[in-house]
Structures are given as C-alpha cells and as structure tokens.
Design goal:
- The chain has 2 domains: 167 residues, Roll (Elastase, domain 1), CATH 3.10.170; 161 residues, Orthogonal Bundle (Neutral Protease, domain 2), CATH 1.10.390.10.
- It contains 10 helices and 10 strands.
- The strands form 3 sheets. It has a 6-stranded mixed beta sheet, covered by helices on one side. It has a two-stranded antiparallel sheet with strand order 7-8. A two-stranded antiparallel sheet has the order 9-10.
Length: 362
C-alpha cells in the first residue's frame, strides 16, 4: 500500500487553518430562528464572532514543534475578560495558585492540567506542542457566548446563554477536545476542510473522550462516549453534542433543528460546502470507527486503541488533506506495527469496514 505524502516540512505541513470551536455551526444557525429573543441574539452574536475569528486565523500555518525537552513542565494561566472582548484578559489564577472563588476559572484550570497529565502519562507528550507549551485559557469571554475554541494560541470559553447552553467549562472532554486541535496543529496538520477537516474534528473528539475516561478510570465498555454531556440545560431534549457510540442520537430537539444529523456510515456522508464541507457532521463516521475499535479491543481505550490513533497522527505519514481511506490505511499499518497480526489489527480493519471505509485504500 502506498503512503500518503505530506507537503512542506516533515511533520509540519503547510496549509490553511481556522479557529476550531466545539459547537457545530448548524446548531447555532438553527438557534437564530428560536422563539426566545435572548437565544436568537446569543446565537447570532456567537456566529458573528466565530466568523470574525475564522477570517483572522484562516491563513495560520501548521506549527513546528521546538526540540523536545527532557523535563515535563506544566504552566497554566487563567485569564478573565469580565464579559468583554479584550483577550486575553486579567490573570485570575496561575500555575500552583490556590483555587479562586470563580468556579469557571477553577474548572478551566483543572481541565487544562488533566489534559496535560493525560498526554504526559499515556503518550509521553510534553504539552500540546511536545515542547512544554504553556497552557493559557480565557474565561467569561463576552456575554452569552455559546462556544469554546482553540485559536491556535490559547483556549477561550464562553459562559453559554443560560437557556440552551451551560458554561462551556462544564466538561473535561470539551476542554480536551479543543486542546487536541492544538496537538493536531503540531502533528498531522490536517486542513479544516472536507474529510481532512472531519478527521481533525474526530481526533479531537477521540482524545477529548479519552481524557474524560482517563479521569474516571473507565474502560471502553463503561464509558458513555458522549461529547459535551451536561452542556445542554434541562430545557433541551438531548444528552450531549455528539455520541461516538451512536452518531445521530445525541439530541432530538426542535429548537436545535430536530434530530442529531451525524452519520455513522459512509452511505449517509453529507456533501456540501457548509461548515467547511461538513466537518462537524461527517466526523461521526471516524468517531464511530474509533468507538468500534476501542470496544473490540477492550480494556482502557487510551492504552491500545488510543495508542494506534496517537501514533497515526504523529507518524508523519498523513497528508494534510488526508481522506478517511488514507487515515484508515495508516491506522491499520500502525496497528500491525505495534501489535503484529493480533486482535488489535483485526479490530481496526473491521471497525473501518463497518462504517463503510475501505481500509485498504491509499
């Protein structure tokens, strides 16, 4: 099987990058039609702000990691904009500092540390860039801002509108999802468009879920495989933003546009130009492939299934515009390299086949 080739410097492809938010834009667009004027206004403002960030960051190149240090150094700084747009804001908690009265700041601080510890302990990675990149986060960004995002430099969290969405620091997997966009930025450098963009989103969901499972010490069968559980208020008929176990079942609420639109199989792949070619919708397909792989292998998903995915994005073998087939091809090769022809490889091959992706594609 032929290897997909990177462009640019080895391990650091060139290409177009955008700010990556946890909330799918199709949900926000639907909420601009909500009956509640506060919900409509919050959704419209969030979409406008997201578009502004995308315009400013679209040409940001993927980044080169400095030389790997010997020691692991965790350096967190939490800022507060006090509901303004002035990033990064005022420092409210620094590394080693005591908890503050603001629960949002404390949750951000703890989730940053948990994600750092996960990549350190499980994969030996020195922070996001593998060179002890300081982890900065801003909380209370603007008013009723419905998103959390990695802007290629730091995390930014909105408080939610309080009607549809809770605080965006509410779940470890939201924070880990966004930080993993940074890991992808420093490794595979997948462009945020079409299948490569859906893979970019899926990788963040995979490791976001694994961080949550790691914190809870849950094996693959015990985990909920939900992304953003708890983010919706009780006013919403939904359990999370996405389900890796059963894409298309995370929510079913009229104000969100009805049922969760994520497919779990290539026969329902969504084509079009919206949301960079459907990166948040079509990520359900590789998400489900990882879930199937992890459950088939068993045990803690971060140990073997996660190792296969991590080694895939750090292998230097993925093109920046990699397709699902190319990604599947590399995961199979990595599984064979790590575990030979044992059950791990069989699990990877079957999982991709079950979601309609040809694992032998090049």
């Amino acid at each position: 099987m032929s290897e997909p080739q990177k462009s640019g410097t080895h391990g650091t492809p060139t290409g177009r990058r955008v700010v990556c938010g946890i909330l799918p834009p199709y949900i926000l667009h639907k909420l601009t039609e909500a009956d509640d004027p506060h919900v409509r206004e919050a959704a419209r403002n969030t979409l406008a702000i997201d578009a502004e960030f995308r315009a400013n960051r679209v040409a940001t190149p993927s980044l080169v990691s400095p030389a790997m240090p010997e020691d692991f150094v965790l350096q967190r700084t939490i800022y507060d904009t006090h509901h303004t747009a002035e990033l990064p804001g005022d420092v409210v908690r620094e590394e080693g500092g005591q908890p503050v009265l603001d629960g949002t700041a404390n949750r951000a601080y703890e989730s940053l540390g948990l994600t750092f510890d996960f990549f350190k302990e499980v994969y030996g990675r020195h922070s996001i860039d593998d060179a002890n990149l300081p982890l900065d986060a801003t909380v209370h960004y603007r008013r009723r801002f419905n998103n959390a995002f990695w802007d290629t430099q730091q995390m930014v969290f909105g408080d939610g509108d309080g009607i549809v969405f809770n605080d965006f620091t509410i779940s470890h997997d939201i924070v880990a999802h966004e930080l993993t966009h940074g890991v992808t930025q420093y490794t595979a450098g997948l462009v945020y468009q079409d299948q490569a963009g859906a893979l970019n989103e899926s990788i963040s969901d995979v490791f976001g879920s694994l961080v949550k499972q790691y914190a809870r010490r849950q094996n693959a069968d015990e985990a909920d495989w939900l992304i953003g559980a708890g983010l919706f208020t009780p006013a919403v008929r939904g359990q999370a933003l996405r389900s890796m176990k059963a894409p298309g079942t995370a929510f079913d609420d009229a104000q969100l546009g009805g049922a969760d639109p994520q497919p779990s199989h290539m026969t329902h792949y969504v084509r079009g130009t919206f949301d960079h070619g459907g990166v948040h919708i079509n990520s359900g397909i590789p998400n489900h492939a990882f879930y199937l792989t992890a459950v088939a292998i068993g045990g803690y998903a971060w140990e073997r299934a996660g190792k296969i995915w991590y080694d895939t994005i750090t292998s230097g073998r993925l093109a920046e515009n990699a397709t699902f087939e190319q990604f599947a091809h590399v995961t199979a090769d990595v599984a064979e390299h790590l575990y030979g022809t044992r059950s791990e490889l069989d699990a990877v091959m079957k999982a991709w086949s079950d979601v309609g992706v040809n694992v032998n594609g090049a």
